[in-house]
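Batch job 17 of 40 flagged for manual review because the log was empty.
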Amino acid sequence: MFSRELKKGSTELLILALLEARPRHGYELGKLIEARSGGRLQFRIGSLYPILCRLEAQNLILGRWVEKPGERRRRFYRLTARGRTALVQQRGAWEEFTGAVNQILAGEHA
């Protein structure tokens, strides 16, 4: 529904925000983004994994493999302290950006 470029700029923020509450695995992250956006934001699960790897390389998240009997092995990700700081900064930047865009879109009617 939205252009790839619009989604590209917000994916890291979405992932960090969803990991704020608790650790999650990649498939769950993709499904939560879709569900919470009312289906307006959809990501192919395979496209999320490079982003998760990049966030892990930046020490913003930490992944660990979890195996449960009768289930497939999954990698769960959680925020690090550095990730929590980055989330606060990115949320603030997003709010400033969307506020500025909304002011422009309102035009002379504001």
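Reviewer: the log was empty due to a logging misconfiguration, but the result itself is present. The longest strand covers residues 61-66. Unflagging and moving on to job 18.
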